[in-house]
Structures are given as structure tokens and as C-alpha cells.
Specification:
Blueprint: H1 2-6, H2 12-45, E1 50-57, H3 60-70, E2 84-90, H4 93-106, E3 108-109, E4 115-116, E5 131-136, E6 155-161, H5 162-175, H6 184-224, H7 234-242, H8 247-256, E7 260-262, H9 270-275, H10 281-303, E8 310-312, H11 315-327, H12 331-343, H13 347-360
Parallel strand pairs: 2-6, 7-8
Antiparallel strand pairs: 1-2, 3-5, 4-5, 5-6
Helix pairs in contact: 2-3, 2-4, 5-6, 6-7, 8-10, 10-11, 11-12, 12-13
Length: 371
């Protein structure tokens, strides 16, 4: 072991730090497990989605290289804060700030040695952006009487976006690893790229905020009942379904046989509504208002003489569309196309469409003047 240490060519002071590293390696390994577990739980509890959570302990060879270059600035191993390092890579720059606030609540942050490199650029410069916290594990979070150093040794938490990570990786590979001074024209190109990535980061966050604001506005319109102002799309239809707009019709149908209602999503009916040129939620409301009685009569004729005691919650919107398609003159083919889109093409869809048309012929709505 002594021979291996001497092979690094370090002075006595740095060799002692390296020996201390070897002695405390089990502590760092235990810290890594605790830190990773707590960070994963923190992210889950707060519903935060990230692109990566990386944890590592600095390898002995890497530490020896650091000591060779900067060993004089460290009094002991505890002065080196990145033996244990964690990196959280987010999708959006806004999430870096959210996660940093949570990390502050989770661990004890050494503010004097923590750095926000996002704020270190001049107005006309771009480059490495990342938030670095130097932390300790507080005793109220975790402690081990057999390993008291676990609450004393510091570790680093880096927080950055995916694009900031791309920049850091590329800049490190192109600018530092070769050991050759990079010509100015290449530095200029790298800076231009850094500016583009920084702008892209800002735009992604801006777009997400605008989409979130839009969804909130739509939800408010849905709750207020101003359906004619709400365009029909995936987000708006999902919000609309949350207020259970077909429940009155569904409960009437279920009461025919005192049937139990099995809950299923009506989202698959969205493309059918769009194909029928429904443009707003107001159009869906008109469908419900104008065709509910006919849809109920269709359901009454379908299941009234059966022992069916479980129905799907989508039966209401299905029968509304069946009546609508038949009154428009869509006939068997129109119903077959609807079932094909819902369940995939099959011979059963043809049979089902034919039976529905035969049933509907016996009901008054099929004898109304066509729209």
C-alpha cells in the first residue's frame, strides 16, 4: 500500500491527506447512499422530473492529481468538499431554483463556500452555468453513532439544466483535456454556442410558463361554464371531463337496470369529435343538450330488456355520438368508422354498427327531418 501511495510522487503533506482519504472512504460510501436516497425521496415528494441524478466518490487517482496541483491550499481532507459529489440535471432552468430551495431545506448548506456560477458572467460573456452547494448531512435528517464523521464531512451538490450540462461537457472536452492552448477563433465559436444554449434554456422555461398559464386560463373557463370560448383539444377536453359533463345522462341510463357504472376514460372520443368538426367545448355542450333524450331512448331500447348490471361510463358519450352520426345520415358506415377508431378495425364493428342501425330505425329520432 505504501508503495502505491509513493508512486503518485506527492509530498508528505499531500500523502497524509491521501492516507486520510483511504481511511474515511467507508464514511463517504455510506454518505453517498444516504444523500442519494434523500435526494430521490425529495424529488418524488415534490413531483419534480429530472433528466439525471448522478452521484460519485472521487477516485484516488483523481484526488492525487488534485493534490499535486493544489495540495498546498488544503490543511486536511475535510477542506476538500468534492470527495463526494452529486449532480442534479433538470429539464428547465426554473427547476434549478426549485431544487436548490429544497436542497437548502434538506441539508445544511455552507453558504460561504457555495457558488452560483450563473451570476458570475459579465454582461457580454457566456459560459459555464451551474449552481454549486457545499452541504453537510444534519443530524435531524440522519446520524450514525458509529460514524460521527457522516455529519461533519462536506459534499457538493451541483444543479444545472440539461443544456448547461451539454455545454459544460463540450467545453471540458474541447478546452481542457488536450493540454494545448485553444486558438481565439475556437474560443469565440464556443462562446457563441454558449450564448445560443443559454437563450434556448430561457426560451424553454418561458414557453413552459406560457403553456401553464394557458392551461390555467382554460381550466378557469371550463369551471365558469364559458364553453363556447374554449377550443376543443387534448388539454381542454381533459379539463372538461373532470367536471363529469355526461353524468346526468349516464345516471339515467344506469337507472334503467340499476346498473353499476365502470369508470373509463372518454379521451379516446376526442379524435372522433374533432373528425366530426366539433371546434369548441361549446359544440360538445350542444351535442349533450340537443341529443341527450334521443341517446337515452336508444340506451333504453338497447338494455331495457336485458339483465345487464354493469355499464361503462363512456356509454353516454357513445350513444350521443351514435344518435348524432345517424341523424346526420352517416349510417352503418359512419358508426363503423367510429368503432374502428375506438377499438381498431374488426368484423365485429361492422356487425355492431348494423345492429345499432336496426335498433335506431324503431326509434322516433330516425324519422326526424335530417339536419
Amino acid at each position: 500500500m505504501e508503495k502505491e501511495i509513493e508512486s503518485y510522487g506527492l509530498n508528505q503533506h499531500c500523502t497524509l491527506i491521501l492516507e486520510e482519504y483511504r481511511e474515511k472512504l467507508p464514511v463517504y460510501e455510506h454518505m453517498l447512499q444516504v444523500v442519494r436516497k434523500e435526494l430521490e425521496q425529495m424529488l418524488r415528494d415534490n413531483g419534480l422530473y429530472i433528466t439525471a441524478l448522478e452521484t460519485r466518490i472521487k477516485e484516488e487517482k483523481s484526488l492525487a492529481g488534485k493534490l499535486e496541483l493544489k495540495g498546498g491550499k488544503y490543511r486536511s481532507l475535510s477542506d476538500i468538499t468534492d470527495i463526494l459529489g452529486t449532480r442534479i440535471i433538470t429539464f428547465y432552468s426554473d427547476d434549478v431554483d426549485k431544487i436548490s430551495a429544497l436542497v437548502d431545506r434538506l441539508f445544511t448548506v455552507d453558504w460561504q463556500n457555495s457558488v452560483d456560477k450563473r451570476k458570475m458572467h459579465e454582461l457580454d460573456s457566456f459560459g459555464y452555468n451551474s449552481l454549486h452547494y457545499v452541504c453537510r448531512i444534519p443530524k435531524q435528517l440522519y446520524e450514525d453513532p458509529n460514524m460521527p464523521e457522516i455529519n461533519e464531512l462536506r459534499f457538493e451538490v451541483q444543479m444545472r439544466t440539461a443544456l448547461q450540462h451539454v455545454w459544460a461537457t463540450m467545453n471540458h472536452d474541447t478546452g481542457y483535456k488536450t493540454g494545448v492552448e485553444v486558438p481565439r477563433e475556437y474560443i469565440r465559436s464556443l462562446n457563441r454556442l454558449a450564448g445560443m444554449l443559454e437563450l434556448a434554456d430561457e426560451q424553454f422555461s418561458t414557453i413552459r410558463r406560457e403553456i401553464t398559464d394557458y392551461r390555467r386560463q382554460v381550466q378557469a373557463l371550463v369551471v365558469s361554464g364559458r364553453f363556447e370560448e374554449v377550443p376543443l383539444n387534448g388539454d381542454t377536453f381533459r379539463s372538461y371531463l373532470e367536471i363529469k359533463p355526461f353524468n346526468n345522462l349516464l345516471n339515467r341510463i344506469a337507472a334503467i337496470n340499476q346498473a353499476e357504472i365502470h369508470r373509463s376514460s372518454a379521451m379516446p372520443y376526442l379524435p372522433i369529435l374533432q373528425r366530426l368538426e366539433f371546434k369548441t367545448l361549446g359544440d360538445v355542450e350542444k351535442l349533450k343538450e340537443e341529443y341527450s333524450e334521443d341517446a337515452y331512448q336508444l340506451a333504453l331500447y338497447q338494455i331495457g330488456n336485458t339483465n345487464l348490471d354493469i355499464i361503462s361510463s363512456t356509454l353516454a358519450i357513445q350513444d350521443l355520438l351514435v344518435v348524432y352520426i345517424l341523424e346526420l345520415g352517416g349510417g352503418e358506415r359512419g358508426l363503423e368508422l367510429m368503432f374502428n377508431r375506438l377499438h381498431g378495425p374488426s368484423e365485429y364493428n361492422i356487425v355492431r354498427a348494423r345492429r345499432l342501425v336496426e335498433t335506431a330505425k324503431k326509434l322516433p329520432f330516425m324519422h326526424k327531418p335530417r339536419l
